[in-house]
Amino acid sequence: xxxxxxxxxxxxxxxxxxxxxxxxxxxxxxxxxxxxxxxxxxxxxxxxxxxxxxxxxxxxxxxxxxxxxxxxxxxxxxxxxxxxxxxxxxxxxxxxxxxxxxxxxxxxxxxxxxxxxxxxxxxxxxxxxxxxxxxxxxxxxxxxxxxxxxxxxxxxxxxxxxxxxxxxxxxxxxxxxxxxxxxxxxxxxxxxxxxxxxxxxxxxxxxxxxxxxxxxxxxxxxxxxxxxxxxxxxxxxxxxxxxxxxxxxxxxxxxxxxxxxxxxxxxxxxxxxxxxxxxxxxxxxxxxxxxxxxxxxxxxxxxxxxxxxxxxxxxxxxxxxxxxxxxxxxxxxxxxxxxxxxxxxxxxxxxxxxxxxxxxxxxxxxxxxxxxxxxxxxxxxxxxxxxxxxxxxxxxxxxxxxxxxxxxxxxxxxxxxxxxxxxxxxxxxxxxxxxxxxxxxxxxxxxxxxxxxxxxxxxxxxxxxxxxxxxxxxxxxxxxxxxxxxxxxxxxxxxxxxxxxxxxxxxxxxxxxxxxxxxxxxxxxxxxxxxxxxxxxxxxxxxxxxxxxxxxxxxxxxxxxxxxxxxxxxxxxxxxxxxxxxxxxxxxxxxxxxxxxxxxxxxxxxxxxxxxxxxxxxxxxxxxxxxxxxxxxxxxxxxxxxxxxxxxxxxxxxxxxxxxxxxxxxxxxxxxxxxxxxxxxxxxxxxxxxxxxxxxxxxxxxxxxxxxxxxxxxxxxxxxxxxxxxxx
Length: 728
What we know:
Blueprint: H1 5-15, H2 21-30, H3 33-36, E1 54-56, E2 63-68, E3 71-79, H4 81-86, H5 88-104, E4 109-119, H6 125-145, E5 149-156, E6 165-175, E7 190-195, H7 205-208, H8 217-220, H9 230-245, E8 251-254, H10 259-270, E9 274-278, H11 291-296, E10 302-307, H12 312-321, E11 325-333, E12 337-342, E13 348-354, H13 356-361, H14 385-393, H15 402-405, E14 416-418, E15 425-429, E16 450-457, H16 460-465, H17 467-484, E17 488-497, H18 504-523, E18 528-534, E19 538-539, E20 542-543, E21 547-557, E22 571-575, H19 579-582, H20 591-596, H21 609-620, E23 625-631, H22 635-643, E24 649-654, H23 657-661, E25 667-672, H24 675-682, E26 688-695, E27 699-704, E28 707-712, H25 713-720, H26 722-727
Parallel strand pairs: 4-5, 9-12, 17-18, 24-27
Antiparallel strand pairs: 1-2, 2-3, 3-6, 4-6, 7-10, 7-11, 8-10, 9-11, 12-13, 14-15, 15-16, 16-21, 17-21, 19-20, 22-25, 22-26, 23-25, 24-26, 27-28
């Protein structure tokens, strides 16, 4: 993907000469959509990133948020979409490695991962091949480095057939005094490269991620995919800790997109400085590497550190202790970003000499046309109730994802209190003994123990039906997952995935998901502190659905949280606005329509979502509450089916089939021995509707209109086990 003529003209005007081949390649990659956000940057101001808890907002390797006095967490998210299509195993694995190194570069230790995965229709052989390879890559890398994958989501939709999405988020933990950033600090400091040797893998990865996938991408674009080494990554994690322990790191940046050229130039540009880099000083694993290859290779497991001159030898000693390569590649300067290279004859050639700030931040934005999506008409199918229930509950989208998360070591680190398969994961942050922070506007009780809840995902059915309302629903649903575990929201990061923005209808849908996500996060008082944008997710089969993955964290007092499964002893209530309360069901974006066809408007969302979720979090912590489960994907049909166990069942009454399959987010099913306490907490906030009673039968009995359905736990498990059954 060469530098466009218009961009080349700008570069020539700035430099006053033609760029060298290395300079042109650097501008091509750093001015790509993947690095420069040329089409999305004009839209991202919609997000509110402010808040008293926000320490470092958007623009660094990861965001930093105050968790409690003297303790911070980092949040980061990234996509590895195109690489995961070309090579699902390595593409997904290196996505994990990259987001972990983003965490390291802020001075944090990684404590949790989430993965949000999107594939073509599950009945397609190629979709299953990609699915299995991606899960294996995430599992092998995450398990090897000892960072638990505690949550996420999996969705299947035919429009991902030619371009799957792999979005990975990471949470890190650090003391306040260990914080570092990617902003270079002082001229004269050394630039030190620590980690794997540089090879030729991943060349041009940033520009590869900024163009549509071609039909022969699986073979032609293989050199642009990096190859990971998790065992070296684990050594790098521990070496990074040792460097921080001794206060040797002034600034840091991991080598990701655009490799050494991207990391080093962006680091000094953030500090308003320059650099002198000797490319031949970089430790390499392949012979006869050219300057351009050394600059742009995206070989994994590498970090660039700014180090005081007197500390260089100690950094070298610690890298050696962990069997990591280490090379002093240059220094921070007051001038341009300059790279030199010594040829075989000993002559030194200047291959790059450009203003760092212009290279890192000079890319112009794109002024693109957008066509707003039209709202769908109502055209509902009339499927038999039993057939509809079994199709929705047995859909790969609503089915059990146990086949996925059982491959992950989600308990390594001994923090995971609520495991994958629930609404949100909960981690015990035992280092923190003070009152946890909550987002401004949210309330939370004091505690000596801090639980950190994490939810991540999106629903392409929702954003296909209505990009704006669907994106609002994604934010609300993730926040509801936290509230169901008794947590109050703290902050979020997003991964905004779209197709080719040069198509007005695609850009219109993308703009709608940005606005929808931003508006709901603002309504919930949740700052969006960072994120990632991935565009040009187009292939021969067309563009992907606009997909706004959100990873949200919240805090709760203590570690205990109510389960999503029934106890079999209490009344069942639906809390939150929805069709049971207002008597109107909308099926737009539902799994019901995905299974049987048709269209409808997207459900109306609650008017005061923040108040309702605060009430839900309080109810989740009430001693009479036995179970809480978010009600959204698959509607009440899937929610109730997921709550049944062999020891606990339920009898529930729903007015009609539409209300059973409506997916209005912001609702939850609560099992309680004190229904009046729930009504009192929600009084004047949101509706509370009687749904039925839990019991000890292990059977779900549904009365829907004039019909009755009954399924025991074994029958429900068989319906929900479709992924494991088909893949094993």
